[in-house]
Design a protein that fits this description.
Strand order of the largest sheet: 3-4-2-1-6-5
Distance between the termini: 31 Å
Number of domains: 2
Shape: globular
Oligomer: single chain
Structural class: alpha+beta
Order of helices and strands: HHHEEEEEEHHHHHHHHHHH
Length: 355
């Protein structure tokens, strides 16, 4: 069986997470696959801006506080970061920088060497892929360029760090191959361009039934109410599965498993931070700081909104993401301990349900 290159999967993940048109696959492929060369005129040794250092330090401290509590072995995942500014790119926590980077020195606040090169990627990019030296790297613009507050930016960094955990797990690429969905595509872009029947009346009707029941289940307040509504969710999922060819259902399940759970993780990190983490004084003093509790409320509301009103027609592939996040939230309530089996079962949240 053809083994999909990690770079190809990474590029597809990039486009799946990217929120701006400038993060187009053609732009990214050109930048990510260009041959590294030693810079003939190294960038001037301009260090990270103070606010960027504060935000990155906050993300690292929050990740350290969470540790492996949300995800087993999350601390074992790489946490390489490439910060894209209007003129330069700064590489941090990377085990093998490519030759075109110039070392600026050791940053004691971030506890890492910092490297710099002239900018190659779009300044509003926010994605994870093997951007440098084949290592899964978070490539991220500054908050203003990505349209995020500092708090949103930190939480999105942890969303991307979860993708680093997904792709670094042993057997990940072989498991993606085994889904059998590439249909001859060796670029990895099938993850985005798979011919799912978005315009099918049956698919839309049954997917809307699933998301409507997920929205209702999340609103349940008693154990009995949640159990009844969870049963309705499972029934709606079975009905949707029965309406789809097996390949199409595997694609939907994979997107919910991969991107939906990344959104869930962003919310879980925000809730953890609100309850058990104190932001640094410097981070809390940033003019666009938002308390983590408020950020968690916004993320959850966005998930709920994404479940409503003909979501498959409006969002197409992206509609699977809030559905996956909502499904994961219900697993927290109904199947405690599901996260300990997330990586060792099929790439489907349904595989985590009891018989």
């Amino acid at each position: 069986m053809f083994r999909l290159p990690s770079t190809a999967v990474g590029l597809a993940l990039l486009a799946a997470c990217a929120t701006t048109p400038s993060a187009s696959p053609s732009h990214v492929v050109a930048a990510a696959t260009s041959s590294p060369a030693v810079a003939t005129s190294p960038p001037s040794a301009v260090g990270l801006a103070p606010d960027d250092r504060v935000r990155i330090a906050e993300a690292l401290h929050l990740a350290s506080a969470i540790g492996d509590e949300i995800w087993p072995a999350w601390t074992s995942a790489p946490f390489a970061i490439l910060l894209v500014t209007p003129e330069r790119e700064f590489l941090l926590r990377h085990p093998r920088p490519s030759p075109e980077f110039t070392k600026l020195g050791y940053d004691s606040l971030l506890a890492t060497d910092v490297f710099v090169r002239d900018r190659r990627f779009a300044p509003n990019l926010l994605a994870t892929f093997p951007a440098v030296g084949g290592v899964s790297t978070i490539v991220v613009g500054q908050p203003r360029a990505t349209g995020k507050s500092s708090t949103e930016w930190v939480l999105t960094l942890l969303h991307e760090h979860f993708h680093q955990l997904q792709t670094s797990r042993a057997g990940y690429y072989a498991r993606v191959d085994s889904l059998g969905l590439a249909r001859g595509d060796r670029t990895g872009m099938w993850m985005l361009n798979y011919a799912f029947p978005y315009d099918s009346g049956a698919a839309r009707t049954r997917f809307d039934a699933l998301t409507t029941r997920l929205d209702s289940a999340l609103a349940g307040t008693t154990d009995a109410e949640r159990a009844m509504r969870w049963a309705a969710v499972r029934s709606a999922r079975d009905s949707l599965r029965a309406a789809l060819p097996p390949d199409d259902d595997r694609y939907l399940a994979f997107q919910m498993w991969q991107e939906g759970v990344a959104r869930y993780t962003e919310l879980a990190a925000a809730r953890f931070a609100a309850a058990r983490h104190t932001p640094s004084a410097a981070f809390a003093a940033l003019p666009d700081f938002v308390p983590y509790g408020k950020a968690a409320e916004v993320i959850e509301e966005n998930v709920r909104v994404g479940l409503r009103g003909n979501s498959l027609e409006r969002g197409r592939r992206v509609a699977f993401y809030p559905a996956g996040a909502a499904y994961a939230l219900m697993l927290d309530r109904m199947v405690p301990g599901w996260r300990s089996h997330y990586f060792d079962r099929a790439m489907s949240l349904d595989a985590l349900l009891p018989p």
